[in-house]
Amino acid sequence: MRGRYPEAESAFTRARVILESNRGDPSDLPAVLNNLGAVYRLTGRYSEAEKAISSALTMWKSNLGRVHLKTAIALNNLGQLRLAQGRYASGDAFLLRAQRVLEQALGPDHPDFGGILVNRGLILSRLRRFDEAGQLLERALVILEKASLPQPARLVSCLNTLGLVDIGRHRFADAESYLNRATALMETALSPNHPDLASVWTNLGALYTAQARYGPAESMLQKALAHEVRVLGPDHTANYWTLKEYANLLRLTKRKAEASRMELRAREVANHDEQLSFLPYVVDAAELKKK
Q1: What radius of gyration, in Å, describes the C-alpha atoms of the chain?
Q2: What is the rounded CA–CA span in Å between residue 225 and residue 121?
Q3: How far apart (Å, rounded) are the C-alpha atoms in residues 116 and 65?
């Protein structure tokens, strides 16, 4: 996956140049900008991502109106960008706008509407608004399970985020049930290189650490970190959270020197990605142990 980003960026950049020089169909330009913005987001180039996606949103609203699926796509992508930056409140504002557009355009039972509920559930969990997040995610789960076409990636994301929310609510048995369901589904339905695999393993590691199940926790965190480095690269934002969880585990098991090295590596990732410097919250075992 990581190796495809330069290829995708090159293709979308060429298309952008062609369309901005009045060659080709100009109505294709916002889609190209939106896709280019997604590549920038996934590679940590957040300022460029925001400019590209915001331009796409402006064009789509002007050409298609505010209540249109493409407008909702751009709003969702801006919300996902703010999530990656740790700007959770403004990210939720974008996702709420996308939710309203999708409900009006598609109805409350469409799987795309379920998908936006999952995205909002995650960002609300980062704000520690766990009960609100849980309500959205439970609603999304019903929608996605009833969908006429299988929705494995969305279901994994929904189950994983429900597990995260229930860790935050100290409902550990429910959290483990959701995360185990996510694990079973992703191992049969998703690509071995899918980035969500590591997220589920990291959350299971955090859950096991909170329960003092340190052996299984360490195995999960090692597995998650190896996957993230291989699929996303050594300096990706996702690594920060896994490194942070692993450092918590090492401190709880009295391995202070190893914990310090892991924390240093997490800071290196944070320094590589300047937006990480103000990320306010992630559910982690250290915080759970304090409560």
Answers
A1: 19
A2: 24
A3: 20
Residue 165 near residue 134 (C-beta atoms within 8 A): yes
Phi, psi of 15 (to 5 degrees): -65, -40
Phi and psi at residue 277, to the nearest 5°: -65, -20
- Amino acid at the residue 65: G
Residue with tokens 């969990």: 125
Nearest-angstrom CA–CA distance, 217 and 208: 5
Place of tokens 């796409």: 56
At 123 the pLDDT is 95
**How far apart are the C-alpha atoms of 211 and 207, rounded to whole Å?**
6
CB 69 within 8 A of CB 39: no
Q: Which domains does the chain have, with CATH numbers?
A: 1-91 (1.25.40.10), 191-291 (1.25.40.10)
Provide the token pair at 128: 């520690």
99: tokens are: 């939710």
SS3 assignment, position 150: coil
DSSP secondary structure letter of residue 192:
T
Name the token pair of 89.
């409140």
pLDDT band, residue 276 (cuts 50/70/90): very low
Residue 280 predicted with pLDDT over 80: no
Could you report the per-residue pLDDT of 109-133, keeping only the tens digit for each?
A: 999 999 999 999 999 999 999 999 9
